[in-house]
Amino acid sequence: MERKLQNAECKLQKSKYRERHHGQRLSISFAFCIRSGQGPRDAGEDAVSLESLISDLKNGLGMVRVNAAAELGKLRDKGAEKALIEALGDGNMAVRNNAVFSLGELRSQDAVPRLIVMLSDPEERVRKSAVKALGMIGKRDAIAPLIQLLASDPSAIVKRSAIRSLGQIGGPKAMQAVESFISRPDAILAAMAKQVLEKYNNR
């Protein structure tokens, strides 16, 4: 019974979505129906959802752009890369943050140079997400910028994420930087470095 109700709801959302009536979050609900496997799937549904979310990201207001930036990563569609990279310059911090993380979810190699630039974003939250995204992507071009960030970023939260991402990327240079934090006076950073190093060595 619950599944039937979910399917009915998704059919309704799809109908509203296609009509493009008012309601700023219709595309978000429709994308959820696709991802969760609820309701019938017609040919081209994923493409329609992608197109709508990209339009929301580029043209929507406030929370519409914020939500679209997050949902595009969850769709795991490489067709979203260009729009998400462009959104890294958005004046809304939440849009930038979600776009950064979504590019990590997409494992976007093309986004790495821009994500490295985002390590200097004035917002701690965005820098942390950029660090995480670079770790998820795993490209070694990010190692030197992450090491530099460890030396210069004022945020302990960002530094902890950087240590974790260096462990994800791996390699001698990255792990040497991680190991150097084990003897640092900051107990939390030292514990994180030890944990990451142990996990790396036990791969």
Record field, number of beta strands? 0
Based on CA atoms alone, the radius of gyration comes out at: 20 Å
Strand content: under 5%
Shape: elongated
Poorly predicted regions are 1-43
Main β sheet profile:
none
Q: What separation lies between the terminal Cα atoms?
A: 45 Å
How would you summarize the topology of this molecule?
Layout: H1 2-19, H2 26-36, H3 45-59, H4 62-74, H5 81-87, H6 93-105, H7 112-117, H8 124-137, H9 143-152, H10 156-169, H11 172-179, H12 187-201
Helix pairs in contact: 1-2, 2-3, 2-4, 3-4, 4-6, 5-6, 6-8, 8-10, 9-10, 10-11, 10-12
Question: Could you name the key traits of this structure?
Answer:
203 residues, elongated, disordered N terminus
What does this structure look like?
The protein is 71% helix and 0% strand. The chain has helices at residues 2-19, 26-36, 45-59, 62-74, 81-87, 93-105, 112-117, 124-137, 143-152, 156-169, 172-179, 187-201. The longest helix has 18 residues, at 2-19. The protein is elongated, with a radius of gyration of 20 Å. Helix 1 (2-19) packs across helix 2 (26-36) and helix 10 packs antiparallel against helix 11 (172-179). The protein has 12 helices and no strands. It starts with a helix and ends with a helix. The chain has a domain at 1-79. The chain is mostly helical.
